[in-house]
Amino acid sequence: xxxxxxxxxxxxxxxxxxxxxxxxxxxxxxxxxxxxxxxxxxxxxxxxxxxxxxxxxxxxxxxxxxxxxxxxxxxxxxxxxxxxxxxxxxxxxxxxxxxxxxxxxxxxxxxxxx
Amino acid sequence: xxxxxxxxxxxxxxxxxxxxxxxxxxxxxxxxxxxxxxxxxxxxxxxxxxxxxxxxxxxxxxxxxxxxxxxxxxxxxxxxxxxxxxxxxxxxxxxxxxxxxxxxxxxxxxxx
Lengths: 114, 112
Description:
The complex is a heterodimer.
Chain A: E1 4-7, E2 10-13, E3 19-25, E4 31-38, E5 42-51, E6 54-57, E7 65-66, E8 76-78, E9 87-94, E10 104-105, E11 109-113
Parallel strand pairs in A: 2-11
Antiparallel strand pairs in A: 1-3, 3-8, 4-5, 4-9, 5-6, 7-8, 9-10, 9-11
Chain B: E1 4-6, E2 11-14, E3 19-25, E4 32-38, E5 45-50, E6 54-58, E7 61-66, E8 71-76, E9 85-93, E10 99-102, E11 106-111
Parallel strand pairs in B: 2-11
Antiparallel strand pairs in B: 1-3, 3-8, 4-5, 4-9, 6-7, 7-8, 9-10, 9-11
């Protein structure tokens, strides 16, 4: 089944404790992206990657890191999480944004930082 | 100024009626437009894409695009309670490196 897999689905952590949210897709998509979703603010892009070893900042990259060592994986790293990073996170992928086609989203990771 | 604007709702429609959702966007050069459906706590699910002016129909859904007015809409015919969800309009802005930008979403409630 073609899908984007995120783990974990739920995570509660403490301020300052480094964490990684994994994202993997099995569709050979070139383009991958991370979004966070907050009430009243909608979906905002954190980072994106056009291909292996190519990443770039989105609208809200502060406090996050990413890497793209393999085509299928695009982990999101929070080196020192803070309570304002409490959010619902989605990973998404698409074959190639040019020409554009729809993005496939993972199931989401609900992160709480206390 | 928000780049993609939607009325947050809720838009309440009786079962069997037509739900009409609207979206405006700021980048006149945009070429690609999408509608996603999102149930509470779930991930967005692509339901329609549209690239050319005019209408595009897929089952009970019709997307309408007017690039001159920078306006895209979604019609849901014969609305069902299972259509109750938040509908997200998304636009790819060429000027921003083909980034997919979402509107805030319109919450739709279909009442039996």
